TrEMBL record:
It holds the Pfam family DUF6589. This is Uncharacterized protein. Residues 952-979 form a coiled coil. Residues 137-157 are annotated as: Disordered. Keywords: Coiled coil. PROSITE patterns: ZINC_FINGER_C2H2_1, ZINC_FINGER_C2H2_2. It comes from Paramuricea clavata (Red gorgonian). Residues 137-146 have a biased composition (Polar residues).
């Protein structure tokens, strides 16, 4: 009975093979097909008429071998053209045997002729020696000693008996005649050409035992090859010699011991254990050292690894280099504990990954890691002088180099204009003390620099040329401005056994890091704010038409990347796409950032707190997720939830708050799909492989610049059509600006021939009602065009706040019962909408904001990021995110008014961290801090209950050098390609799936009256829903608040 769990097998019909003559061997007639189970396989064969592919016989044709011995090979359809391997070998051997017989069967033996001649000439020896018959050994040549048979025992003769004094007996007779060699059983070196024999070295070896036995083949071979200087053969014989091999191994052990002893006593890289030396450590250096100082050990390990260490370069075989270096380090450390540099590097990896105390001890006992106590000491070493850079920065800035340059620029600007090329400059403190940037310290430094430059130029006066040269040199000064980046760290420690005295701990600490500014313009003014808050207009912090124009341009570039990536007919334009949007500080933003620890015991004055970008971006992702994703919309094709399910990216359904990386990856796929679907609708494409019907593509002959301009123009049309198709944003900005302008001046009476003016709009309305009996009907509105609240009892009066309105209603309208505030503005738009189209257009708009946000951060483009924040400010305010709307508004106001030119420039451009120093490799400062905090928490978890302020500080102080050390190890492991951002894999399949879904529901084809998705039935085509009066009121209040906080005196 068959097992019920056995998977049933389905019979698959196979094509029946038709037999032919080539299925059998031509010679032995055996079948060349072998049955394996239910199928037939062919054995290895050779073709009679084709060239052979067998090693050593390449190109030989078997038929020609047969023809060489006089047999004609016929080629017929009923004769097989294939031979099995044994038959093919027989044919080759048959030809060789035939040729051997042909050339040797009737040929006179040259050896016999020569021996006969020798016997005739050597009669003297034959008369004195008994010619008893002896056994003859086979001839052996020097070139092939390994083919010599083992020497056989000679037969005893009546007249010759070999004794111990063999050497003495041979001294008188060994050189008398060549024929004596045969009696001594020495092989004769035979050659057909006697002249060649005389020109070559001939070696004859005899080892004769007292009993007359001659043997030991390996020993004879060894002696012969030593004499012939054939050292390669000698080395092989020595290692295979049964009696010599044990002695050789002892010698190898002794030589290796001596070599390692000298190596351990020398100045080697394995003994260098300082922080900078460990960071600069290289495994390739170990390979070079053992190759030169321990050649025997180097040969052993290279043979074990099957590599040639002497011929390897640094990246030829990273695995072999690292393995040999690790083995050498572990073995050397057994002899000398101080040779532990590589072990410290291995321990740093374990330390970085948060290995436990027990695992650290295990690895130490295995010989590849340091002990836990040594690791703690190593951490202290890494954290030593952790704040040296920031102290150096601070010391340099305390000399006020920026103020010194500002004073020099002021002296130059205030010089009288003359026609002379060289003008003397009077460096007098009394004259310069009234200057705006004058300080005694700055003036003293300037005087010293001018005097030094005058002596350098060997001139008599301090002229304008000297001043210009000093200014030029001082501008080259690397101003070490920096940012102090901090974040809180929350950590929980659960007690293993809880008691009243010992319970769980909830830790809330902060961690600070100093990152040096990469973009510094020392020529900018740093003495006064850019403008007062009274002069600041709201248009300076709102996305005006100029800002929108810049956003359209950058969005068009981003769209061009997506279109050329996924749409087949636009792929030929990929080489004209702008991969990195340039800005004025692209070079500085692509340099590697400098990072340092913070000193808790030193004070740094005049710190200006800022918010960072990554948390703000996460908040935007959360807003987008809440706006477009609902858990019950998974069965509605085209929605965010449905796209997650259909692309199998279900981890993103947890949202960016819990699964940020997963949601960001999915969001990018969904955005690219929306771009492709909308672009296909605009150009008349049926699918991603289709051809545009509404546009004409440029030909391949068009120059690159023209094609690039055409593509950008098309993409800007796309942005105007789907992202800036509504006037809601322009109307909001315009109405806010008009309201601000009205509030700045006096409100004049709107009745003709009345010249009265009022400070407040509410006073003007009261005058118009009482003096002119003007009917101020609210028409169902809650607020008028200036943001004032109407009296709900319809008396016509207006009030600046709800509180004053309510007091008025209670006092003057006793019978009035207020109802909930309703407005005609809240009623649905009577115009017929396409709510499904609205949903996906709004999704596209929000997605482009996040797309541009990510790209601006990567490129380190502070100006583009500020433009995006002006638009994001409205999103934060509209979404009810009061904290982020507050800090973003403050950020924009600081740049526009509160800060000086230098401070505003610094705030706008120095917001990024570039780890590897490459174009497009920036991240936000707070994201860098989050990455560091993750490493800290990993290490802290390994400490367990031993975590306290001392151990936490020790780890935090070592963090910077630890990261540098890990980066060095990554280079050693050839992991340089793992730079930059989290890998998202190939998402083309996901993009194509969502694009297909959107095209099937015609998401971007406007259809009036079409209902939206069931979960989003009345979706409006806008992502900002703000009342301009509320916006104006909120921004004006914050301006007044900050005017009292940030007002400061001019220097």
């Amino acid at each position: 009975m068959s097992n019920i769990n056995e998977t049933p097998k389905k019979l698959v019909p196979t094509a029946k093979h038709k037999l032919n003559s080539n299925d059998y061997c031509r010679c032995c007639k055996l079948s060349l097909r072998v049955q394996y189970g239910d199928s037939w396989k062919s054995v290895s064969t050779e073709n009679v008429f084709n060239g052979s592919k067998k090693k050593g016989f390449e190109g030989q044709i078997l038929a020609q071998n047969v023809d060489a011995i006089g047999i004609k090979v016929e080629r017929k359809s009923d004769l097989s053209e294939r031979l099995c391997k044994p038959c093919a070998t027989k044919i080759r051997n048959a030809r060789a045997g035939f040729l051997f017989l042909l050339h040797n069967i009737n040929t006179i033996n040259a050896i016999f002729m020569r021996d006969q001649e020798v016997e005739t000439t050597a009669t003297g020896v034959h008369d004195n020696i008994n010619t008893s018959r002896t056994k003859r050994t086979l001839p052996t040549t020097v070139s092939t000693p390994e083919r010599s048979p083992i020497s056989k025992k000679t037969q005893k003769t009546g007249t010759i008996r070999l004794k111990r004094s063999l050497g003495k007996q041979f001294d008188n007779t060994i050189n008398k005649d060549h024929n004596e060699d045969s009696l001594l059983n020495i092989d004769i070196i035979c050659h057909d050409d006697e002249e060649k024999v005389q020109k070559q070295t001939r070696v004859k070896v005899l080892i004769l035992w007292p009993n007359g036995r001659t043997d030991v083949k390996d020993t004879i071979r060894l002696v012969k090859n030593i004499v012939l200087n054939n050292w390669k053969a000698v080395s092989h014989i020595v290692l295979t010699h049964q009696e010599l091999k044990p002695e050789i191994l002892k010698a190898v052990r002794s030589a290796t011991n001596n070599g390692f002893k000298q190596y351990c006593n020398s100045d080697t890289i394995l003994k260098r254990r300082s922080t900078e030396e460990l960071i600069a450590f290289s495994n390739s250096t170990i390979i070079k050292e053992i190759t030169e100082r321990c050649p025997l050990w180097s040969s052993c390990v290279s043979g074990a690894c099957s590599v040639q260490l002497q011929q390897m370069h640094e990246y030829d075989n990273t695995n072999a280099i690292n393995s040999v270096a690790l083995a050498t380090s572990a073995i050397a450390r057994v002899r000398n504990k101080s040779m532990s540099a590589l072990t410290y590097r291995v321990s740093s990896i374990l330390f970085h990954s948060g290995v436990s105390y027990q695992d650290m001890t295990r690895l130490n006992r295995l010989g590849i890691g340091m002990s836990p106590d040594m690791v703690i000491s190593f951490q202290r070493q890494l954290g030593k002088n952790f704040d040296s850079k920031v102290l150096s920065y601070k010391s340099s800035l305390e000399e006020k180099p920026h103020d010194t340059l500002a004073l020099m620029m002021e002296i130059k600007d205030k010089q009288p204009v003359t026609n002379d090329d060289i003008v003397a400059i009077d460096v007098c403190e009394e004259k310069r003390s009234s200057y705006q940037h004058f300080t005694p310290e700055s003036f003293t430094r300037i005087t010293d620099m001018l005097q030094s430059e005058k002596e350098k130029k060997n001139v008599d006066i301090i002229s304008n040329e000297v001043l210009d040269q000093v200014i030029t040199d001082h501008k080259k000064f690397n101003f070490p401005f920096f940012k102090l980046v901090g974040d809180n760290i929350d950590h929980e420690i659960n007690a293993r056994i809880q008691t009243k005295e010992h319970g769980n701990q909830s830790i809330h600490w902060t961690h600070q890091t100093v990152i040096r500014d990469s973009v510094v313009d020392p020529c900018l003014d740093n003495t006064k704010p850019r403008q007062s808050l009274d002069q600041l207009q709201l248009l300076d912090i709102l996305p005006t038409a100029t800002i929108q124009s810049r956003l359209k341009h950058s969005w068009a570039i981003l769209v061009s990347r997506v279109v050329t990536k996924h749409l087949k007919d636009f792929a030929f334009l990929r080489n004209v796409v702008i991969n990195h949007i340039p800005h004025q500080y692209s070079k500085e933003a692509s340099t590697k950032s400098e990072i340092d620890g913070d000193n808790e015991f030193d004070s740094i004055k005049e710190l200006n707190p800022e918010f960072a970008d990554w948390h703000g971006k996460v908040n935007l992702y959360e807003m987008e997720f809440n706006m477009f994703c609902k858990s019950d919309s998974g069965n509605e094709l085209g929605t965010t939830k449905a796209s997650m399910n259909r692309t199998r990216k279900t981890n993103a359904s947890a949202g960016p708050g819990k699964k940020y990386n997963e949601y960001k990856e999915f969001h990018q796929c969904e955005l690219e799909a929306h771009i492709c679907s909308a672009f296909m609708e605009m150009t008349g494409m049926e699918d991603t492989n289709g051809t545009p019907k509404t546009i004409n593509l440029p030909s391949n002959l068009t120059n690159k610049q023209t094609k690039g301009e055409w593509l950008l123009s098309l993409c800007e049309s796309f942005i105007n059509r789907y992202c800036f198709d509504s006037e809601d944003l322009d109307n909001l900005i315009q109405q806010t600006n008009q309201l601000e302008l009205a509030s700045l001046g006096k409100y004049k009476c709107r009745v003709e021939k009345c010249d009265k003016a009022f400070v407040y709009h509410s006073g003007r309305v009261s005058h118009e009602i009482s003096a002119h009996q003007m009917n101020n009907d609210r028409n169902g509105q809650i607020r008028d065009e200036y943001g004032y609240y109407f009296c709900r009892a319809d008396c016509g009066h207006v009030f600046s706040t709800k509180a004053t309105r309510n007091r008025h209603e209670k006092k003057n309208h006793l019978q009035f019962t207020p109802e909930e505030d309703t407005s005609v503005n809240d009623t649905p738009d009577p115009i017929i909408n396409d709510h499904l189209y609205n949903y996906h257009c709004a999704k596209l708009k929000f997605g482009m904001i996040l797309f541009d946000f990510n790209d601006a951060v990567q490129e380190g483009d502070g100006q583009r990021l500020r433009d995006i924040y002006k638009l994001a400010l409205l999103l934060y305010k509209s979404g009810g995110h009061t904290k982020y709307s507050y800090v973003v508004l403050l950020y924009l106001v600081k740049i526009a008014a509160i800060y000086s030119e230098f401070e505003a420039h610094n705030l706008m451009w120095n917001r990024f961290y570039n780890k590897y120093g490459r174009l497009g490799g920036n991240i936000s400062l707070d994201l860098k801090k989050e990455q560091q905090n993750k490493v800290l928490k990993t290490i802290w978890r390994a400490l367990g209950s031993n975590l306290n302020k001392a151990s936490a500080s020790r780890v935090a102080e070592a963090l910077e050098n630890l990261e540098r050390l890990i980066e060095s190890i990554d280079k050693e492991c050839n992991l340089q390609e793992r730079k930059g951002y989290r890998s998202s894999g190939n998402n083309t399949e996901s993009v194509m799936q969502i694009t297909s879904d959107l095209s099937s529901i015609k998401a971007f084809k406007f259809t009036p009256g079409r209902h939206g998705h069931a979960s989003f039935p009345d979706f409006e085509n806008k992502i900002v829903n703000l009342d301009y009066r509320n916006l104006h009121e909120w921004m004006s209040e914050k301006k007044k608040l900050w005017q009292s906080i940030y007002s400061r005196k001019s220097k």
